[in-house]
Amino acid sequence: MQAAGTTPSWANDQIWQVVVATGEHLTQIKRAHLAALQSGRSGYSEFPPLHRDAMAAQGRSNVRTWSTDLQTFLGPQYGQMTTASAQLFSAPAIAYLLMPAKASLWTAYDLGAFGQTLMLAATALGVDSMPAAEFVADPQQLHTILNVPADYQFGMGIGLGYRDEQAKINQFRSERMPLDRYLTITD
Ligand SMILES: Cc1cc2nc3c(=O)[nH]c(=O)nc-3n(C[C@H](O)[C@H](O)[C@H](O)COP(=O)(O)O)c2cc1C
């Protein structure tokens, strides 16, 4: 977390806050998340999502490839995705990255950099991590359970723990585009 705190930010404002939920608080969050799913209440993250149809063509194509690859890889075990998601990936700790409700996109950029630094540092320490919008899908519950005031928003949740080597989902390796699909060098 200290390594993540060295992340650069707009005019060095460092306006991130982090709440790491474990123990009883995390149990409450997981219970509330499952109850919301079972009652058909679908939550919305405080960062507004973009509908898949409105995505840039490159993104739509990559999402389609990822989805097909994952379904092919998991086969009949594809249901593991839904179960894992409903159980918030069995994370023993979730780091919630917060930023002020009134903030610019620059702050979202900084929060993303903070999250990536956190994950790299965790990896270096042998701790696995997973960013998931699912962790912040029910912000109202999170505000209540974690006692976070409305002037802060839940940007992202990062699950921290140790991967289950037996779970097939954890053997999946998603593809990345080759360099020439996203890099232009001009001189
Ligand atoms: C912003 C963001 C949101 C994500 N949300 C979810 C999610 O809600 N559920 C999920 O299963 N994966 C989600 N992911 C993807 C997983 O974090 C990712 O697939 C997983 O950690 C495996 O790593 P990989 O990207 O190398 O395959 C999200 C990733 C990012 C960057």
From TrEMBL:
Keywords: Flavoprotein, FMN, Oxidoreductase
Cofactor: FMN
GO molecular function: oxidoreductase activity
Domain spans labelled Nitroreductase: 2-162
InterPro entries xref list: Nitroreductase (IPR029479), Nitroreductase-like (IPR000415)
Family the UniProt entry places it in: Belongs to the nitroreductase family.
Name of the protein this chain belongs to: p-nitrobenzoate reductase
